[in-house]
Protein backbone atom coordinates (compact mmCIF):
# COMPACT_ATOMS: atom_id res chain seq x y z
CA UNK A 1 0.00 0.00 0.00
CA UNK A 2 1.51 3.30 -1.13
CA UNK A 3 0.31 5.33 1.85
CA UNK A 4 1.61 2.79 4.37
CA UNK A 5 5.02 2.92 2.64
CA UNK A 6 5.06 6.74 2.71
CA UNK A 7 4.37 6.68 6.46
CA UNK A 8 6.97 3.94 7.05
CA UNK A 9 9.56 5.88 5.01
CA UNK A 10 8.98 9.02 7.08
CA UNK A 11 7.19 11.12 4.47
CA UNK A 12 4.58 11.71 7.17
CA UNK A 13 5.92 11.76 10.73
CA UNK A 14 4.00 10.88 13.92
CA UNK A 15 1.61 13.72 14.69
CA UNK A 16 1.50 14.98 11.10
CA UNK A 17 -1.89 15.64 9.59
CA UNK A 18 -2.42 13.89 6.28
CA UNK A 19 -3.46 15.97 3.27
CA UNK A 20 -7.16 16.13 2.37
CA UNK A 21 -8.62 13.16 0.52
CA UNK A 22 -8.80 15.07 -2.77
CA UNK A 23 -5.01 15.63 -2.65
CA UNK A 24 -4.22 12.05 -1.62
CA UNK A 25 -6.33 10.74 -4.52
CA UNK A 26 -4.06 12.62 -6.95
CA UNK A 27 -0.80 11.93 -5.11
CA UNK A 28 -1.42 8.20 -4.73
CA UNK A 29 -3.32 7.65 -7.97
CA UNK A 30 -6.27 6.03 -6.20
CA UNK A 31 -10.03 6.27 -6.57
CA UNK A 32 -11.93 7.79 -3.66
CA UNK A 33 -13.33 4.37 -2.76
CA UNK A 34 -9.88 2.72 -2.73
CA UNK A 35 -8.39 5.58 -0.73
CA UNK A 36 -11.12 5.35 1.91
CA UNK A 37 -10.59 1.60 2.14
CA UNK A 38 -6.86 2.18 2.60
CA UNK A 39 -7.48 4.78 5.32
CA UNK A 40 -9.85 2.42 7.09
CA UNK A 41 -7.22 -0.34 6.99
CA UNK A 42 -4.52 1.96 8.38
CA UNK A 43 -6.86 3.18 11.12
CA UNK A 44 -7.65 -0.43 12.08
CA UNK A 45 -3.91 -1.09 12.25
CA UNK A 46 -3.46 1.91 14.56
CA UNK A 47 -1.18 3.72 12.09
CA UNK A 48 -3.48 6.72 11.76
CA UNK A 49 -6.31 8.24 13.79
CA UNK A 50 -9.12 10.51 12.74
CA UNK A 51 -10.36 13.61 14.52
CA UNK A 52 -13.74 14.76 13.20
CA UNK A 53 -13.53 18.38 12.13
CA UNK A 54 -9.71 18.48 12.21
CA UNK A 55 -8.47 15.71 9.93
CA UNK A 56 -6.50 12.47 9.85
CA UNK A 57 -3.20 12.18 11.73
CA UNK A 58 -0.27 9.77 11.79
CA UNK A 59 -0.10 7.89 15.09
CA UNK A 60 2.91 7.64 17.34
CA UNK A 61 3.83 4.13 18.52
CA UNK A 62 2.01 4.72 21.81
CA UNK A 63 -1.08 6.06 20.09
CA UNK A 64 -1.00 3.20 17.62
CA UNK A 65 -0.93 0.67 20.43
CA UNK A 66 -3.88 2.38 22.08
CA UNK A 67 -5.88 2.49 18.87
CA UNK A 68 -5.08 -1.18 18.28
CA UNK A 69 -6.50 -2.04 21.69
CA UNK A 70 -9.70 -0.12 20.93
CA UNK A 71 -10.12 -1.85 17.58
CA UNK A 72 -9.59 -5.22 19.21
CA UNK A 73 -12.29 -4.25 21.70
CA UNK A 74 -14.57 -3.25 18.81
CA UNK A 75 -14.29 -6.78 17.42
CA UNK A 76 -15.81 -8.07 20.65
CA UNK A 77 -18.69 -5.60 20.77
CA UNK A 78 -21.93 -5.91 18.84
CA UNK A 79 -23.67 -2.76 17.51
CA UNK A 80 -26.42 -3.37 20.09
CA UNK A 81 -23.93 -3.38 22.98
CA UNK A 82 -22.23 -0.33 21.49
CA UNK A 83 -25.51 1.58 21.67
CA UNK A 84 -26.09 0.39 25.24
CA UNK A 85 -22.66 1.76 26.17
CA UNK A 86 -23.47 5.11 24.58
CA UNK A 87 -26.76 5.23 26.47
CA UNK A 88 -24.89 4.63 29.73
CA UNK A 89 -22.23 7.30 29.17
CA UNK A 90 -23.43 10.12 26.89
CA UNK A 91 -26.45 11.22 28.96
CA UNK A 92 -24.06 11.82 31.88
CA UNK A 93 -21.82 13.85 29.56
CA UNK A 94 -24.81 15.98 28.49
CA UNK A 95 -25.67 16.55 32.16
CA UNK A 96 -22.13 17.79 32.85
CA UNK A 97 -22.25 20.00 29.75
CA UNK A 98 -25.39 21.71 31.07
CA UNK A 99 -23.57 22.55 34.29
CA UNK A 100 -20.27 23.67 32.78
CA UNK A 101 -20.71 24.90 29.20
CA UNK A 102 -19.21 28.29 28.41
CA UNK A 103 -20.86 30.77 26.06
CA UNK A 104 -18.40 29.82 23.33
CA UNK A 105 -19.11 26.12 23.86
CA UNK A 106 -22.85 26.78 23.50
CA UNK A 107 -22.17 28.72 20.30
CA UNK A 108 -20.15 25.81 18.86
CA UNK A 109 -22.94 23.36 19.72
CA UNK A 110 -25.52 25.54 17.94
CA UNK A 111 -23.27 26.08 14.92
CA UNK A 112 -22.61 22.36 14.53
CA UNK A 113 -26.30 21.52 15.04
CA UNK A 114 -27.22 23.90 12.20
CA UNK A 115 -24.54 22.37 9.98
CA UNK A 116 -26.09 18.94 10.56
CA UNK A 117 -29.55 20.22 9.60
CA UNK A 118 -28.23 21.77 6.38
CA UNK A 119 -25.90 18.93 5.38
CA UNK A 120 -26.39 18.14 1.66
CA UNK A 121 -25.56 14.43 1.99
CA UNK A 122 -25.90 11.65 4.55
CA UNK A 123 -22.09 11.39 4.82
CA UNK A 124 -21.78 15.07 5.72
CA UNK A 125 -24.73 14.84 8.10
CA UNK A 126 -23.08 11.94 9.93
CA UNK A 127 -19.83 13.92 10.15
CA UNK A 128 -21.60 16.89 11.75
CA UNK A 129 -23.71 14.61 13.95
CA UNK A 130 -20.49 13.03 15.21
CA UNK A 131 -18.94 16.46 15.76
CA UNK A 132 -22.06 17.70 17.59
CA UNK A 133 -21.80 14.91 20.14
CA UNK A 134 -18.10 15.74 20.60
CA UNK A 135 -18.87 19.45 21.04
CA UNK A 136 -21.22 18.44 23.85
CA UNK A 137 -18.40 16.45 25.43
CA UNK A 138 -16.04 19.42 25.07
CA UNK A 139 -18.66 21.63 26.75
CA UNK A 140 -18.17 19.65 29.96
CA UNK A 141 -14.78 21.35 30.33
CA UNK A 142 -13.51 18.01 31.64
CA UNK A 143 -10.56 16.47 29.79
CA UNK A 144 -11.21 13.03 31.24
CA UNK A 145 -14.81 12.98 29.99
CA UNK A 146 -13.65 14.17 26.55
CA UNK A 147 -11.06 11.39 26.47
CA UNK A 148 -13.69 8.83 27.48
CA UNK A 149 -16.00 10.11 24.75
CA UNK A 150 -13.22 9.94 22.15
CA UNK A 151 -12.39 6.35 23.05
CA UNK A 152 -16.06 5.38 22.99
CA UNK A 153 -16.38 7.05 19.59
CA UNK A 154 -13.28 5.29 18.28
CA UNK A 155 -14.80 1.94 19.19
CA UNK A 156 -18.14 3.00 17.66
CA UNK A 157 -16.45 3.75 14.34
CA UNK A 158 -14.71 0.38 14.32
CA UNK A 159 -17.81 -1.70 15.14
CA UNK A 160 -19.14 -3.53 12.09
CA UNK A 161 -22.57 -1.94 11.59
CA UNK A 162 -23.27 -3.50 8.21
CA UNK A 163 -24.76 -1.62 5.29
CA UNK A 164 -27.37 1.00 6.12
CA UNK A 165 -29.71 1.61 3.19
CA UNK A 166 -30.66 5.26 2.68
CA UNK A 167 -33.88 6.16 0.88
CA UNK A 168 -32.70 9.70 0.07
CA UNK A 169 -29.52 11.61 -0.78
CA UNK A 170 -29.69 13.63 2.43
CA UNK A 171 -31.65 13.49 5.69
CA UNK A 172 -35.25 14.63 5.18
CA UNK A 173 -36.34 17.88 6.81
CA UNK A 174 -38.40 15.91 9.34
CA UNK A 175 -35.51 13.62 10.30
CA UNK A 176 -36.23 12.81 13.94
CA UNK A 177 -32.69 13.47 15.12
CA UNK A 178 -33.01 17.18 14.26
CA UNK A 179 -35.71 17.80 16.88
CA UNK A 180 -33.89 15.54 19.34
CA UNK A 181 -30.68 17.53 18.88
CA UNK A 182 -32.68 20.74 19.41
CA UNK A 183 -33.98 19.48 22.76
CA UNK A 184 -30.48 18.50 23.93
CA UNK A 185 -29.00 21.87 22.92
CA UNK A 186 -31.87 23.81 24.50
CA UNK A 187 -31.52 21.94 27.80
CA UNK A 188 -27.77 22.55 27.90
CA UNK A 189 -28.26 26.25 27.09
CA UNK A 190 -30.91 26.47 29.84
CA UNK A 191 -28.41 25.03 32.34
CA UNK A 192 -30.84 22.21 33.11
CA UNK A 193 -28.71 19.10 33.75
CA UNK A 194 -31.62 16.70 34.29
CA UNK A 195 -33.38 17.81 31.10
CA UNK A 196 -30.10 17.55 29.15
CA UNK A 197 -29.46 14.06 30.49
CA UNK A 198 -33.01 12.94 29.68
CA UNK A 199 -32.93 14.51 26.20
CA UNK A 200 -29.67 12.75 25.33
CA UNK A 201 -30.98 9.44 26.64
CA UNK A 202 -34.18 9.85 24.61
CA UNK A 203 -32.18 10.71 21.49
CA UNK A 204 -29.93 7.66 21.76
CA UNK A 205 -32.93 5.44 22.53
CA UNK A 206 -34.60 6.79 19.38
CA UNK A 207 -31.51 6.02 17.28
CA UNK A 208 -31.27 2.56 18.81
CA UNK A 209 -34.96 1.92 18.14
CA UNK A 210 -34.53 2.80 14.47
CA UNK A 211 -31.56 0.42 14.23
CA UNK A 212 -32.68 -2.49 16.38
CA UNK A 213 -36.28 -1.98 17.49
CA UNK A 214 -36.91 -1.58 21.20
CA UNK A 215 -33.75 -1.40 23.36
Helix-strand category = mainly alpha
Q: Which descriptor suits the 3D outline?
A: globular
The biggest beta sheet is recorded as: 2 strands, antiparallel
For the terminal residues, how far apart are their CA atoms? 41 Å
Rounded to an integer, what's the Rg over CA atoms?
18 Å
What string gives the helices and strands in order? HHHEEHHHHHHH
Number of strands: 2
The figure for the number of domains is 2
CATH superfamily of the largest domain: GntR ligand-binding domain-like
Number of helices: 10
By CATH, the architecture of the largest domain is named Up-down Bundle
Which CATH top level class of the largest domain fits?
A: Mainly Alpha
- Uncertain segments: none
Strand content: under 5%
Question: Kindly state the mean pLDDT as a whole number?
Answer: 85
Under CATH, the topology of the largest domain can be stated as: Four Helix Bundle (Hemerythrin (Met), subunit A)
| Major sheet strand order | 1-2
Describe what this molecule looks like in 3D:
With 215 residues, the protein is mostly helical. It folds into two domains: 2-69, Arc Repressor Mutant, subunit A, CATH 1.10.10; 77-212, Four Helix Bundle (Hemerythrin (Met), subunit A) (Up-down Bundle), CATH 1.20.120.530. It is built from ten helices and two strands.
List keywords for this structure.
globular; Arc Repressor Mutant, subunit A; Four Helix Bundle (Hemerythrin (Met), subunit A); mainly alpha; 68% helix
How are the secondary structure elements laid out?
Blueprint: H1 2-8, H2 21-28, H3 32-44, E1 48-51, E2 55-58, H4 61-75, H5 79-100, H6 103-117, H7 122-138, H8 143-158, H9 176-189, H10 193-212
Antiparallel strand pairs: 1-2
Helix pairs in contact: 4-8, 5-7, 5-8, 5-9, 5-10, 6-7, 6-9, 7-8, 9-10
Amino acid sequence: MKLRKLIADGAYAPGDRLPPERELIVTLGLSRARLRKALETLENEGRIWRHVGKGTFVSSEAEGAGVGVLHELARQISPFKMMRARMAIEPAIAREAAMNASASALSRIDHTREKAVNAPTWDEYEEFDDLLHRQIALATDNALLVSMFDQLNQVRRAVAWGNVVRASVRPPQDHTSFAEHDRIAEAIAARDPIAAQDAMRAHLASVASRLFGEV
